[in-house]
Amino acid sequence: MAHALSLGRRGMGRTWPNPAVGCVIVQGDVIVGRGWTQAGGRPHAETEALAMAGDRARGATAYVTLEPCAHHGRTPPCAQALIDAGVARVVAAVQDSDPRVSGQGFAMLRDAGIEVTTGVLSEEAARDHAGFFLRTEQGRPWVTLKLATSFDGRIATAAGHSKWITGPEARREVHAMRLRHDAVLVGAGTARADDPSLTVRDFGNVQQPVRVVASRLLDVPLMSQLAQTAKDVPVWICHGHDAAPALREAWDSVGAALVPIETEAGQLDPVSLLQRLGERGLTRVFCEGGGSLAASLLLADLVDELIGFTAGLAIGAEGQPSVGVLGLSRLDEAPRYRLIETRACGRDVMHRWVRSA
């Protein structure tokens, strides 16, 4: 199952709205087939593994990281494919939360006389599929908030100088993280100040994440890198209903997708923002700031994972903070996260946190 999970992770960021599933087929002590969900969500992992196994799948055991699907979509159900292949046993990590599948895939297999074992490495699988489960159950994607800061929590000097606070190893790690998410999200201030491309670089010819900008008034320069490359790599602009029609037409003409979002107190409503992204199929979103967007997501309790890259320099109180105003008066009002990983990353420190239970 550990091998199946590692295979499934190869599809992260490229299978949405489908989950990134891994499958290993074993005959005796020999792996005869393995597969993972392919780009765009099809073919599914089980189909790939069965194709590799061929006739050797008969009487074999299939290890799969998520309950095999039981419904007819663009492809026949994977549960039926396992039955037709003559698999004797299926070991699954977790049950699917999609109501079209939940429990039904296991029932199909058992009704066909296949032995089914569940719950193997279920915690690891639940983490891997957390974005898919969140979208299925709550309608929103998993949100990872990444902050690259000085030791004193600043992202730039008072003059806005920020390149580079962290070193090349940390920046390469960030590109790898982008690759494992469906989309990269930034606020309008970051898009204006940094003119980022938000693409994955130095990893070869890979499927790029969707680039999402939260900009209530669509006030992002039309000469920006995002605008100039919108026809090559998807750009979604999440805007308020009060955005100027002329700007809507201009962004539409350069190839960006416009996503209207409800507003609250003059700002984009973060709940509405994530619901709309979920409706469009996203399961994992990598937010890279800025401070106002980070604060709004934290205040709404919508950040599932925090990743920090901390550099060994101090900028001072006049520098720009990594998180905007939260308006907290007591420490017990602050959102708490649990540390799950920390390690050196070149000359910087990477630390990863998930929401406390």
UniProtKB/TrEMBL annotation:
Q: Which residues form a coiled coil?
A: none
Domain (CMP/dCMP-type deaminase): residue spans on this chain: 1-109
One BP term from GO = riboflavin biosynthetic process
GO MF terms here are: 5-amino-6-(5-phosphoribosylamino)uracil reductase activity; diaminohydroxyphosphoribosylaminopyrimidine deaminase activity; NADP binding; zinc ion binding
Cofactor(s) required, per the database record: Zn(2+)
Quick one: which residues bind substrate?
162, 178, 198, 201, 288
Q: How is the cofactor bound?
A: Binds 1 zinc ion.
Q: Which residues form the active site?
A: 46 (proton donor)
Q: What does this protein do?
A: Converts 2,5-diamino-6-(ribosylamino)-4(3h)-pyrimidinone 5'-phosphate into 5-amino-6-(ribosylamino)-2,4(1h,3h)-pyrimidinedione 5'-phosphate.
**Full protein name:** Riboflavin biosynthesis protein RibD
